[in-house]
Amino acid sequence: MTKTREPLAILKSLVALLLIIFTLWAAQWQYHRGVDRHERNTLIAKQSTMSSIDLPNTIEDPSKLEWRQIRTTGRFTPDKQILLRNRYFEGQYGYEVLTLFTNVQGKIFWVDRGWVKAGANATTAPITPPIPTVQVDIVGRLRLGTSLPSGTFFALPGGGKSGITSEVNAQSRENTEDFYIDLLSGSMPTLTPDVSAQLPELSDGPHMAYALQWIFFGGLVVYGRILIRRAR
Fold first, then answer.
1. Cα torsion 88, 89, 94, 97: sign
2. I need a surface site. Which of 29, 116, 193, 226 has the fewest CB within 10 A?
3. How many whole angstroms separate alpha carbon 224 and alpha carbon 13?
4. How many CB atoms lie within 10 A of CB 27?
5. Residue-wise pLDDT tens digits, 153-180
6. Which residues contact 92 (CB under 8 A, 6 or more apart)?
7. For residues 143 and 180, what is the distance between their CA atoms, to the nearest angstrom?
8. Domain ranges across the chain
9. Which one, of 30, 12, 21, lies nearest residue 213 by Cα?
10. Using CB atoms within 10 A of its CB, is residue 98 exposed (0-12), middle (13-18) or buried (19+)?
11. What pTM did the predictor assign?
């Protein structure tokens, strides 16, 4: 009987060890997620409250300017507009309006001109803010292209559906900068969005609590293995 129990005891100990390793890995993963989120929240809070600056002619690392308010001058391209689906404001379904912009230095990028309410039905295009055809000054928050909200797209005018893709540039066949701008205001009153793109919620989330929870689970595995051994 003792010889039969020994392999079973070794197997139980091995399973317990694997569970402990997994809980420690999960705890570390949640911890690092919490640290990364806290650092990002700190960056957003710092950058978004700093005074606005002119968009530099040369941007070697756009990530250093993300969330910073910038000023620039240029023109919108009226026939290059995209509606980003599945955006909600105060419980209402709508779209983010993205319009192509070229500044006087020749940089081409998308400008998020804010949220608009969806049309009465799926075949009715929403009412979007008028697009200036003259040169304008704009002020907005610089955002990385990789942080563009996910969703599906269709192009205007006409509201006809086009190829669905996860990248705006692929959908519109444009080659733009690696950043876009959340429009806040401009030299014309109509440029100020009724509902501008919102800052993300600056919450650190439950990651640290989850990390402690996984450590607790690991402790339960150890305690359970001890109880099973004593019960032999």
1. negative
2. 226
3. 11
4. 20
5. 443 333 333 322 235 655 556 678 888 8
6. 117, 118
7. 5
8. 2-44+204-230, 68-191
9. 30
10. buried
11. 0.71
